């Protein structure tokens, strides 16, 4: 596979862009693979890349029921950060942040990694204490965190409602290394890198059944025939409970829709990712000028990739409370993705059966986790041992009670 470079761009510009090869191969499925990964989203593709690059496993297939990137990886609001509080989460998300920082070089792909800073606003003294605590926990783990006072915020974010707000802004927590990454470029970059090392990336191949013998999965029934597997890795995000049910497994996961929105293109307006502390709202501006924003999940279970009007109203209301000028922008479109909400809001990277591995429970924070999730899942599949950074993401924590409840709201998926 040819390398992308400034020289290649120049060469192709001079010859009418006739020499670009497809970014990845899309071969017919083989009858059997050492490892079959179900789900060609960010996590499945990243896992395939690290299996090949780090662990030398290349007799691997990624089966995707739609096109590559048609799931949540291409639907999210592109925010990456590692501003986590809990011991089990923080080092994992920081590993991911470090991998983001070197991702474009690793994949030889422009993923538009933009470390523009993520600012969480706070509006009460109690929230200030909570954010100070979170910031201190981050710094203890070597992660950058700073508290911003109101004069600093006024300079950085003059468009916020400071003077007439119902919930006055009292400051913010900033992680300057946080920011955004172009989501579908991440899927394409991982697909290309994995494919170039010999992994078969197979779109339009839906898994419809899994043949199980005792504690082992032996073959997958797919819309493109039967495929035998040495090891099976499930990375199906919002459909985790559906694919696990094919093995007779019930997961501590509920599926909910999360919606996102984009406005018409505007001149540069917001330089950072900003989150509202007095409601659920987060916003950044894309390079095309659209304001990309979102809020809460729809509070009912669904596998539909679209949401309801109640959440549309709630999100826009919070947005206008934070940035009154938003009321003048036109919303261009909205869409939805299916979230695999775990009972404690934290993910699962674990073995589920003798040769079956599970990557699930990402809630609405799994995009930022993509590189670390792929690396840690590949480690587990290749070595049989959990990656040291992902030891806390065990399936049995829901039985033992050793949960990782970052928000402290209990077993209520719609609140995480
Ligand atoms: C609107 C929205 C905003 C979000 N914002 C953020 C954010 O700003 N930051 C952040 O960190 N996270 C965010 N997330 C969450 C994040 O996108 C997800 O947690 C993450 O993408 C899930 O992992 P994935 O990329 O592997 O999922 P997906 O891309 O959904 O991949 C799973 C794949 O499995 C495939 N599949 C399912 N069943 C089968 C089957 N039977 N056979 C074959 N294939 C199958 C699906 O088609 C899908 O492509 C957001 C999500 C949404 C929807």
Automatic annotation (TrEMBL):
Its EC number is 1.5.3.24. It catalyses: sarcosine + (6S)-5,6,7,8-tetrahydrofolate + O2 = (6R)-5,10-methylene-5,6,7,8-tetrahydrofolate + glycine + H2O2; sarcosine + O2 + H2O = formaldehyde + glycine + H2O2. It is found in: Cytoplasm. Keywords: Cytoplasm, FAD, Flavoprotein, FMN, Nucleotide-binding, Oxidoreductase. Gene3D superfamilies: D-Amino Acid Oxidase, subunit A, domain 2, FAD/NAD(P)-binding domain. One of its GO terms (cellular component) is cytoplasm. Signal peptide: none annotated. This is Sarcosine oxidase subunit beta. Belongs to the SoxB family. GO terms for molecular function: nucleotide binding; sarcosine oxidase activity. GO terms for biological process: tetrahydrofolate metabolic process. Residues 35-79 form the Rhodanese domain. Its main location: cytoplasm. Its cofactor is FAD; FMN. Pfam families: DAO.
């Amino acid at each position: 596979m040819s390398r992308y470079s400034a020289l290649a761009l120049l060469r192709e510009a001079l010859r009418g862009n006739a020499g670009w090869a497809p970014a990845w191969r899309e071969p017919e499925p083989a009858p059997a693979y050492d490892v079959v990964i179900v789900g060609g989203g960010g996590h499945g593709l990243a896992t395939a890349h690290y299996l090949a690059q780090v662990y030398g496993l290349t007799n691997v297939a990624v089966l995707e029921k739609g096109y590559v990137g048609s799931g949540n990886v291409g639907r999210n609001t592109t925010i990456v950060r590692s501003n986590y509080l809990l011991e089990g989460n923080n080092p994992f998300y920081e590993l991911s942040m470090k991998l983001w920082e070197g991702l474009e070089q690793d994949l030889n792909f422009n993923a538009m990694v933009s470390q523009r800073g993520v600012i969480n606003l706070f509006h009460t003294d109690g929230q200030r204490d909570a954010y100070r605590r979170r910031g201190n926990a981050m710094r203890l783990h070597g992660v950058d965190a700073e508290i911003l006072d109101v004069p600093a915020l006024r300079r950085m974010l003059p468009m916020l409602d400071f003077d007439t707000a119902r919930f006055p802004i009292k400051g913010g927590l900033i992680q300057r290394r946080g920011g955004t990454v172009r989501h579908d470029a991440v899927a394409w970059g991982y697909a290309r890198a994995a494919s170039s090392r010999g992994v078969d990336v197979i779109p339009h191949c839906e898994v419809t059944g899994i043949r199980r013998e005792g504690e082992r999965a032996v073959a997958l029934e797919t819309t493109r025939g039967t495929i035998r597997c040495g090891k099976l890795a499930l990375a199906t995000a919002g459909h985790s409970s559906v694919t696990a049910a094919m093995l007779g497994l019930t997961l501590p996961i509920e599926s909910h829709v999360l919606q996102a929105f984009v406005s018409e293109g505007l001149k540069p307006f917001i330089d950072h990712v900003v989150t509202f502390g007095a409601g659920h709202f987060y916003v950044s501006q894309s390079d095309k000028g659209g304001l990309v924003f979102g809020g809460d999940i729809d509070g009912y279970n669904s596998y539909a990739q679209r949401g309801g009007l109640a959440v549309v109203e709630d999100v826009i209301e919070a947005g206008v409370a934070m940035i009154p000028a938003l009321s003048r922008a036109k919303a261009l479109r909205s869409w939805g993705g299916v979230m695999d909400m775990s009972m404690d809001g934290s993910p699962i990277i674990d073995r589920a059966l003798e040769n079956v591995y599970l990557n699930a429970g990402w809630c609405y924070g799994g995009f930022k986790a993509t590189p670390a999730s792929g690396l840690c899942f590949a480690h587990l599949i290749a070595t049989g041992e959990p990656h040291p950074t992902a030891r806390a993401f065990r399936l049995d924590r829901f039985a033992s009670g050793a949960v990782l409840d970052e928000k402290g709201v209990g077993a209520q998926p719609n609140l995480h």
